[in-house]
């Protein structure tokens, strides 16, 4: 018996400035906390209220735990799956840098029994899976691939963020598989990306409906700054003016989430994987 289809809802819980690459090299955590201006603390309760009784996978940037230690406990107390997004949000293509980043969040990940990992910008390489296995992660959701695909990467399962494939093509699904022109030219629309949701709005709900009717369970990503508006600031206005392509990320998606929860069943990725493994191993 297959696992009942549902939307695998995930939220990459990160500061608003994580969108903009010119902040990646900032080394001072206190300065990054000041840039956050309390957003990742104050956005949490309104976001949890929007989720209501629905449960999601919330992948947390680890330094937020240092800034606001109450955040992870609030997430698990509300019944959501807590995962690791990274410790400091930036590209982590170098395995040595990735290993150091994972170690920086190891303490709170162990405390809360974290099993899932989501790479920043959905950017991971094949060598990273061994590091994730060594760190005790059960699964990752760090590449794009068609809904319904679950991959075993050594000791780690990969549950990709969903794409819509426009033609039948067998793939090996080797990382990296990020949001790129190459992915689009190969005939895959990454509709699980919040960028695509920002561009296409309710048309994504139509795709999700069709995927569910096919018995598939699509994985989608949202962010806190898409559900709770950051306080206006000169810095944010300037950053958007310099990077207008990021505007779809900051489009208000609270209405999208409301429609999604009203029309479709949802669950965390970890819950779905547990059910999948129970069936395949029986």
Question: Helical amount among residues, as a percent range?
Answer: 40-55%
> Major sheet, described briefly?
5 strands, parallel
Strand content: 15-25%
The end-to-end distance, rounded to whole angstroms, is 11 Å
The value of Rg in angstroms is 18 Å
Number of helices: 16
What's the assembly state of these chains?
A: single chain
Structure description:
This protein is an alpha/beta fold. The protein contains 16 helices and twelve strands. It has helices spanning 29-36, 39-42, 44-51, 63-67, 70-77, 95-104, 106-111, 128-134, 181-185, 194-200, 203-213, 224-227, 234-242, 247-250, 254-263, 269-281; strands spanning 7-13, 57-61, 81-86, 116-117, 139-140, 144-146, 151-153, 156-158, 161-165, 188-189, 219-222, 266-267. The strands form three sheets. Strands 1, 2, 3, 11 and 12 form a five-stranded parallel β-sheet that branches. Strands 4-5-8-7 form a four-stranded mixed β-sheet, sandwiched between helices. The longest helix is centred in the C-terminal third of the chain and has 13 residues, at 269-281. It is globular, with a radius of gyration of 18 Å. The termini are close together.
